[in-house]
Design a protein that fits this description.
The complex is a heterodimer of chains A (about 90) and B (about 475). Chain A is mainly α and about 90 residues long. Chain A is about 35% helix and about 5% strand. The longest helix of chain A is centred in the N-terminal third of the chain and has 18 residues. Chain B has about 475 residues and is an alpha/beta fold. Chain B has a single domain, classed as Amidase signature (AS) domain (Amidase signature (AS) enzymes, Alpha-Beta Complex), CATH 3.90.1300. Chain B is built from 17 helices and eleven strands. In chain B, strand 10 and strand 11 form a beta hairpin. In chain B, helix 2 packs antiparallel against helix 3 and helix 6 runs parallel beside helix 7. The longest helix of chain B has 22 residues. The chains are: A mainly alpha (about 90), B alpha/beta (about 475).
Chain lengths: ~90, ~475
């Protein structure tokens, strides 16, 4: 783990970090990932458990159902005339 | 101080709801009176222990008024339609309640008021429960002690000792379950142990059901393949009553099981899982409980789960943070919650907003999860953790073929003091979950029962999928 990798991961995650947070991330993530690299030694088979139980794929019928109204969907956003209002783009 | 200093006796707590319902049906008290008293009491408790993120007084009063009118119309028949009439319920902050701030303990969602109820909320309201509010938690569930609360949120305190933590991440839920002076069940959520851990630390009962048994519709996700909603209560009767209402298929949740709970059974034998790093007093209290079960006719044998013991913690944190890092991508400060006035490109807007909104642990988990899924690292971490999870599930299933349940302590120690927690590194925090991440990875139901000890501790009973009723029966023997 190094500062460039931390910066790359933060950029991918769209996360601004202060200088102190970058320092803490460098210190903590290295130790955590070192400890978790234990997984390399685990014997495994071909299965990959995406879920704890076997869940059959379930699709609903292709029929339009009810959904939130535009007013409800925008109830928690800063909006104007039915649109989300974002900050000024420079 | 209003809180109970000692847990109510099992018989006493079980009888609280039927006694209240009897008084309501006899006309000795109205639901409006009951709610008035409960809200006053809750405000006092919250001042002392900071267990709430929101108190929904207006909603509770309107529910009580409607139920009073219905009772006048139906008389005693109201219990047929509303079996949990008058039971006060609280919801972990990550569970959406219409019109009540639901922020998952995060500044990123501060001010967010859902326009719909989660399925568990609507089912409990339909059953006659009164919604008292939202309980404190680690931000998005990222913690084991409820000290990783979001910016501007309060850390809940343990009602049995204010200088100790409540456990996490559903700390406020367990604190209120322990302290409430009225019939109450807290609805909590577990990803890697967040029901059993706080239940153990607050001396109450906590049931994490089988993955998919209780709908996640309306839950603000931490990690979709791990999240489960379940009750925390002072009595097993209350746990069982509430579980009966909230369990069951829900078309709104793509991972909802189309199967029902197995009928209660009486296991002849249980497996005592050998664990390292358990405090002597906790281990001793656990042995006392095992002996009580043995005297009720349940034999035990010690077993090991070597693969789970070695790899579960790492696999859990890789999977959980990977899923969390994608789930939290939606919080960009445009549609809901924290929306600071940022100018610049869309990318700058998202990056600055998220940097201001998330706390230290949330950032750490987003970074870890993003790293574990990055090209070049994905197969070494995320995909490998999924393969390890398959083997862990198989290891549990192998033991559960031979035994009716597995037993261990829920947490390896008594609730730590806040000054002790501040000395731990993030990795040491994570390691405290080592007894609980296994059943959570495997989606197995597990129940924490209060142990008789100097300080609160829990006995963990783990069953096979859909064996919740059998765990509750075993719990009554412990």
């Amino acid at each position: 783990m190094d500062t460039d990798t931390i910066a790359r991961v933060a950029r991918l995650a769209r996360l601004s970090l202060t200088a102190a947070e970058k320092e803490a991330a460098l210190r903590d993530m290295g130790g955590i990932l070192d400890a978790f690299s234990l997984l390399e030694t685990a014997e495994t088979g071909p299965e990959r458990a995406l879920h704890p139980l076997q869940l059959p794929p379930r699709l609903r019928e292709d029929i339009a159902g009810s959904s939130l109204s535009q007013e409800e969907a925008l109830a928690n956003a800063r909006s104007k005339e039915g649109y989300i209002k974002a900050g000024r783009v420079r | 101080m209003p809180a109970r200093k000692k847990a109510t006796s099992k018989q006493g707590a079980s009888a609280e709801l039927p006694a209240l319902q009897g008084r309501i049906l006899q006309g000795e008290i109205t639901l409006s009176d009951h709610v008035h008293e409960a809200v006053d009491s809750l405000r006092e408790l919250d001042r002392e222990y900071a267990m709430m993120t929101a108190i929904s007084e207006e909603l509770a009063r309107s529910q009580a008024k409607a139920l009073d009118a219905e009772k006048r119309k139906l008389g005693k028949d109201i219990l047929r339609a509303r079996p949990l009439l008058g039971l006060c319920v609280s919801f972990k902050d990550a569970i959406c309640v219409r019109g009540v701030q639901s922020a998952a303990g995060s500044k990123a969602l501060k001010g967010y008021t859902p326009v719909f109820d989660a399925t568990v909320v609507s089912r409990l309201r339909e059953a006659g429960c009164i919604v008292l509010g939202k309980t404190a938690q680690d931000e998005f569930g990222f913690g084991s002690f409820s000290v990783n609360v979001g910016k501007d949120f309060r850390i809940p305190r343990n009602p049995l000792d204010r200088e100790r933590c409540c456990g996490g991440s559903s700390g406020g839920a367990a604190a209120l379950a322990a302290a409430a002076l009225f019939p109450h069940v807290a609805i909590a959520e577990s990803t890697g142990g967040s029901i059993a851990a706080p239940a153990a630390f607050c001396g109450v009962h906590g049931l994490c059901p089988t993955y998919g048994l209780v709908s996640r519709n309306g839950l603000i996700d931490y990690a979709n393949s791990l999240d489960k909603i379940g009750p925390i209560a002072r009595s097993l009767d209350d746990v069982s009553r509430v579980l009966d209402v909230i369990a069951g298929f829900d078309a709104a949740d793509a991972t909802s099981l189309q199967r029902t709970m197995a009928p209660e059974a009486m296991p002849k034998s249980i497996a005592l899982v050998k664990q390292e790093g358990v405090a002597e007093e906790v281990a001793s209290a656990m042995w006392d409980a095992v002996k009580r079960m043995e005297s009720s006719g349940v034999s035990y044998k010690e077993v090991s789960l070597p693969y789970t013991a070695k790899f579960a913690l790492a696999a859990y944190y890789i999977i959980a943070t990977s899923e969390a890092s994608t789930n939290l991508a939606r919080y960009c400060g445009l549609r809901y919650g924290f929306q600071p006035p940022v100018e610049g490109s869309a990318e700058e807007h998202f990056t600055v907003t998220r940097g201001e909104a998330f706390g230290a642990e949330a950032k750490r988990r987003i970074l870890l999860g993003t790293y574990a899924r990055m090209a070049g690292y994905r197969s070494a971490y995320y995909e490998r953790a999924l393969a390890v999870r398959s083997r862990i599930i198989a290891e549990y299933q192998g033991v559960l073929k031979r035994f009716g349940a597995l037993v261990s302590p829920a947490m390896p120690l008594f609730p730590p003091r806040f000054d002790e927690l501040s000395q731990l590194t993030p990795l040491q925090h994570y390691a405290m979950d080592h007894l609980l991440v296994g059943p959570n990875l495997a989606g197995l139901p597990h129940l924490s029962i209060p142990l008789q000890a100097r300080l609160p501790a829990g006995l963990l009973l783990i069953g096979n999928h859909l064996q919740e009723k059998t765990l509750i029966r075993l719990g009554r023997m412990a």
